[in-house]
Write a structure and sequence with these properties.
Blueprint lengths: L5 E7 L4 E7 L2 E4 L5 E3 L6 H5 L5 E15 L10 E4 L6 E5 L5 E8 L5 H6 L1 H8 L7 E14 L4 E2 L2 E3 L5 E2 L7 H20 L6 H30 L3 H16 L3 H13 L6
Parallel strand pairs: 4-11
Antiparallel strand pairs: 1-2, 2-3, 5-8, 5-9, 6-7, 7-8, 9-12, 10-11
This protein binds flavin-adenine dinucleotide.
The site of flavin-adenine dinucleotide has 19 residues, from strand 1, strand 9 and helix 4.
Length: 269
Amino acid sequence: MLWSHRVIALAQDGNGVTPGVETPEGPREFRAGWVIGTDGARSSVRQLLGLPFEGHTWPDRFVATNVEYDFGKYGFELANMIADPVNWAVVARLGRENLWRVTYGEDASLAEDEVRARIPAHYAAIFPGREPYRIVAWSPYRVQERAAPSFRVGRALLAGDAAHACNPCGGLGLTTGVIDADCLIAVMTAVIEGRAPESVLDFYAEERRRVFHEVTSPLATNFKRTLSEKDPARREEDRNGFRTNAARVDNSVTATSLSKLIFGKPMPV
Ligand SMILES: Cc1cc2nc3c(=O)[nH]c(=O)nc-3n(C[C@H](O)[C@H](O)[C@H](O)COP(=O)(O)OP(=O)(O)OC[C@H]3O[C@@H](n4cnc5c(N)ncnc54)[C@H](O)[C@@H]3O)c2cc1C
């Protein structure tokens, strides 16, 4: 692990890759068999490969806040979605006792200090009670549905947000990045150890891209729609769907089949 190192260039030939890196001691070149770009949604590796980030940025703005408040007292579970045409929110418990992530939508035209000033008004609409709270952190951001047209170019591969980014409703961003890593470890290890042909890397690249386009992004998009649906008839339809699902005794089967879709086909190694 090399801290304060920034990839700024990338060359490759038939035997390996040569990333150019900015380091505290000045620019330096590395040589390796492969490079995996896991450098986030603004990935330098993806850009150096000449790959666009295809898709769209949502017009609305999200505000992620970390707040100390006793949601547990009101029966909130580890992850909760509040569906409302205006005051929708995702409320999830973070690791520490009573520290929660509350994410909601905000007017995209507001300046940052106005976003901060309006947090109490949003909380008043979202929180179940009127007890005092403590805001630990907050951050407005824009959300995206985008993916690279290919997750492999020769000896360079992409994983996580560098490869694909979706809106956070449903918590699928990090989740699918971790699955990418798991799949890539399996195929890359097999190639390096000579147990599998390089074509398994194409399988990784195509399968993880397919999962994004066919499963993750549509799911996240539907979660986003459901949370803030304005049409009363569709809201009622969604509510009935939730009720039916919640009442099913084989509820865990639904969750398992969803996980299977996100995991995609097993890597062929
Ligand atoms: C506010 C917010 C809330 C979210 N909530 C959820 C959630 O509830 N559930 C969920 O599953 N996902 C959530 N996500 C998405 C999740 O955070 C991302 O999907 C995840 O962090 C992606 O991980 P990553 O390792 O691919 O990229 P990142 O976490 O972005 O890490 C990229 C790393 O690469 C480094 N880097 C960048 N450029 C270079 C370079 N040129 N050279 C070297 N290093 C570089 C960066 O410093 C960084 O350390 C949320 C995102 C945001 C912004």
